[in-house]
């Protein structure tokens, strides 16, 4: 694990647990920042309920409780050692001059491929852990200008080259909705951190889904803007043709506030010149109730998948689309001519990555390595990235026949999509962000639909669609015409207002006296059986000490945890005592529905013996 510390005026990584210092405020005085919106945090500051310094302390306490302890999300690379000092300066400014705007004093987190003048920028690579940029990335500078406090940097898939968020610098980041699953990527640290209320909002980057996939997997909203909407200056590149940088947030309003602060022309990034004339005065002010009424949404069934593994997500997205229809949207099936063929081989990441990374590193005087090849040669990369990095290091030149043909397809697909939108009078195309739920850690993530927006350069927003039967968030993506971000935001806002789809993860609840809730202990008796339980809400771990008092020649057949089906016993989900056992201790990992049923009180302990093979008693499990 790595944490950035100041040494002789420079930044160096030390092998240590990544945890902040104990909050300076007394624990009981900490403000509850859990699930608070930017406007709520701003109102609390204006009312004197909390200061910016107090918000920093509140989020640091949450990070301390949950990032390397409890569920161990592993979403934070490093914390800004000047965060409290910067917050106090903003508090003084508020007192003297008033707030700059809605982000004044609001803590935000930044993906570790954005340059930050006060912290290293590693891109998730061990070989770049000490690289210290001279200046902030343009969008980071704009956030500071808006009054935001940069709280720290988030983990990412190494060099943004994947969608599960594992790296040689930080290892694996976990999904706060299921600690055995990935958060998506490559902005998975930002997704997990924002989902867990480690900050008000966060910044990511998207070359093919790296904002939208973590948004989908953490029940967030994330926007990949139109190519040219926002600056890429100071963002470590994966592909200069496909890279976009932008925010993730827990609500559409928060996303719009972050966009208002970060978009706009950058003289150092020529592509932003086109977007300048298309940016509204305020994305936030453009949000209106009833945004779905009268909208025409075209459903791209071709992107729903046909494999059995795609069925659950497809059903959740279809149900969300039915909900949009109930809110006044017209939802129709749409076909984009030649879609599958034009998408195939249209990515240019493998063509550009090696060269774009080298160009970026050449501008960093203190970069420890200067190329992808050097990272590979020195073994400074994670094993799961080895094959990908070697493949992407193989091109000898950028301009190949594949590269040329990819651009032919990109232009053709963009034209086909725009023609379909115009001819069918469609406001947005709809499809699942991922056709499959977040994969288990260590497995490859399948089912991504990231390429359509990345190939066409058109904007796409991922928003919550619902949850799987085991409690995992699913995202629905809407894609529109060039610079139609206001339309996409309004559609997402209309859905959010009607469906209120945001649900906080189980593993990072509100703090109790400034710390994670302690495990709850309780005991129950069921016939001849007795169980002492200890339940940790932050990990979903149920520990037990079970026993049974058996008389005469009777024998235990089983002591179980079972679901209830009305008044009748349901299926067995855990065996606490095996046949002929009279005592045992152990742990039951409660995931998804089992965890929800435990908290809801719909699980029971049953005892089965030789003399009572159909049950010697059952008792409801009630978690205090």
Strand arrangement within the widest β-sheet reads 3-5-4-8-10-9-14-15-13-11-12
Percent strand equals: 15-25%
How would a crystallographer describe the biggest sheet?
A: 11 strands, mixed
The first-to-last residue Cα distance is 35 Å
Low-pLDDT stretches:
1-28
Domain count: 2
Arithmetic mean of pLDDT: 94
Q: Write out the CATH superfamily name of the largest domain.
A: Amidase signature (AS) domain
SS summary, helix count: 17
Label this structure with key terms.
about 625 residues, alpha+beta, Amidase signature (AS) enzymes, Immunoglobulin-like, 2 domains, eleven-stranded mixed β-sheet, four-stranded antiparallel β-sheet, 17 helices, about 30% helix, globular, disordered N terminus
What's the helix and strand layout?
Elements: E1 2-7, E2 10-15, H1 38-46, H2 52-66, E3 76-79, H3 83-97, E4 107-111, H4 138-145, E5 149-154, E6 166-167, E7 171-172, H5 188-195, E8 201-206, H6 212-217, E9 221-224, E10 244-249, H7 252-262, H8 272-275, E11 296-299, H9 311-326, E12 330-333, H10 339-343, H11 349-362, H12 372-377, H13 386-392, H14 401-423, E13 428-432, H15 451-456, E14 460-467, E15 473-479, H16 485-499, E16 520-526, E17 529-536, E18 541-548, E19 556-565, E20 568-577, E21 583-589, H17 593-600, E22 603-609, E23 618-620
Parallel strand pairs: 4-5, 4-8, 11-12, 11-13
Antiparallel strand pairs: 1-2, 3-5, 6-7, 8-10, 9-10, 9-14, 13-15, 14-15, 16-17, 17-18, 18-21, 19-20, 19-22, 22-23
Helix pairs in contact: 2-3
